[in-house]
Amino acid sequence: MTNKNQAQNGVACAASPARVARPVARLRRRPDGFGALWPNLEALFEPFWGSDDAPAADFRPAIELSETDEAYQIRAELPGVARENIELKLEEDLVILKGSKEARDESEEGTVHRSERVFGSFERRFRLPHELDAEAAEAKFENGVLTVRLPKLEPEKRSRVIPVDTSDPS
């Protein structure tokens, strides 16, 4: 018997990112209590990923957060979520994304034997380390992906040259 991750000659092959990610996603949904460990794992990595102090939600959309010198960009995978069910808010350096995915009974007849679809509300929060230009922020929703561009504000210069008086105080 050979492992799916091994070539026929017995040499190990690297697993694809999707193959590695699937077991992690399954851990979240386990009914045996192991899924309850997920918040502890997230808390362990919070200093690296940023704060996400959102309330509990029915599901958690996948997020990609990237940064350039000029702006942050957030991409959120929201398949099946209607545009009108998405709320995006910026409060200083805190980005709040929330919404809901409504359940629809698409089976007209028969019995559903397996369903892995997720419905309900979600909320994600990201505190970013720079002040953001709320007026120039942009968001678009295409093919189930929300893309948000958040330009950074130039830091205020809080320094100045202080002239030194050279007159004699006497």
Q: How would you portray this structure in words?
A:
This protein is of the alpha+beta class and 170 residues long. The protein has 2 domains: 12-49, no CATH class; 51-105 and 119-155, Immunoglobulin-like, CATH 2.60.40.790. The protein is 14% helix and 27% strand. The chain has a 4-stranded antiparallel sheet with strand order 1-2-7-6, with no helix packed on it. It has a 3-stranded antiparallel sheet with strand order 3-4-5, with no helix packed on it. A hairpin with a 3-residue loop joins strand 1 (63-67) and strand 2. The chain is elongated, with a radius of gyration of 24 Å.
List the helices and strands and how they pair.
Layout: H1 17-28, H2 38-49, E1 63-67, E2 71-77, E3 86-91, E4 94-101, E5 120-127, E6 138-142, E7 145-151
Antiparallel strand pairs: 1-2, 2-7, 3-4, 4-5, 6-7
Considering the chains and any ligands shown, give keywords for the structure:
170 residues; alpha+beta; four-stranded antiparallel beta sheet; three-stranded antiparallel beta sheet; 2 helices; elongated
Question: What would the principal axes of the Cα set say about the shape?
Answer: elongated
Specify the structural class.
Answer: alpha+beta
**Can you tell me the CATH class of the largest domain?**
Mainly Beta
Helical stretch tally: 2
Strand count, sense and closure of the main sheet?
4 strands, antiparallel
Number of strands: 7
**Structural domain tally:** 2
Strand fraction: 25-35%
CATH architecture of the largest domain: Sandwich
Task: Output the CATH topology of the largest domain.
Answer: Immunoglobulin-like
Task: Calculate Rg over CA atoms.
Answer: 24 Å
Helix content: 10-25%
- What is the overall pLDDT average? 76
The spatial strand order of the largest sheet comes to 1-2-7-6
Low-confidence stretches: 1-21
Termini gap: 97 Å
Order of helices and strands: HHEEEEEEE
